C-alpha cells in the first residue's frame, strides 16, 4: 500500500494490528510508552490487536495494557494529578513548566515531543 492509497482509503484496522504485532512495538517490554490522556488510545490499540470487545472492568483493561505494553507506561495527564500546580491541557502545562513547543499544536510529532519534554521536566522537578 502507498501513502496516497492510505490517505484516500485508510488502512484496515486488522492489518494495522498485525503490523503492530510484527513490528515488535507491543509485547516488547524494553520500550517506554508516554501519553497525554492516552487511555482511549490504548483502548483502541487493544481492541484492534485482540479483535475483541474491550473488557468491562478496569482491572481487566489494565491487565491487557500491562501484558501488551509492559510496565513502562506513563500518562502525563494522570501524573499531573499528583502535582497541585499543574492542570489543563498540554499547552497550558507546557507554559506552566516553561517547556517550549517545537512545531504546531495538535500535530502528532509536535504533541509527542512536547509530551516527552513535559514528562522529563516533571521527573526532574
Automatic annotation (TrEMBL):
<protein>
    <submittedName>
        <fullName>Putative poly(A)-specific ribonuclease</fullName>
    </submittedName>
</protein>
<dbReference type="GO" id="GO:0004535">
    <property type="term" value="F:poly(A)-specific ribonuclease activity"/>
</dbReference>
<dbReference type="InterPro" id="IPR036397">
    <property type="entry name" value="RNaseH_sf"/>
</dbReference>
<dbReference type="GO" id="GO:0003676">
    <property type="term" value="F:nucleic acid binding"/>
</dbReference>
<dbReference type="InterPro" id="IPR039637">
    <property type="entry name" value="CNOT7/CNOT8/Pop2"/>
</dbReference>
<dbReference type="InterPro" id="IPR012337">
    <property type="entry name" value="RNaseH-like_sf"/>
</dbReference>
<dbReference type="GO" id="GO:0030014">
    <property type="term" value="C:CCR4-NOT complex"/>
</dbReference>
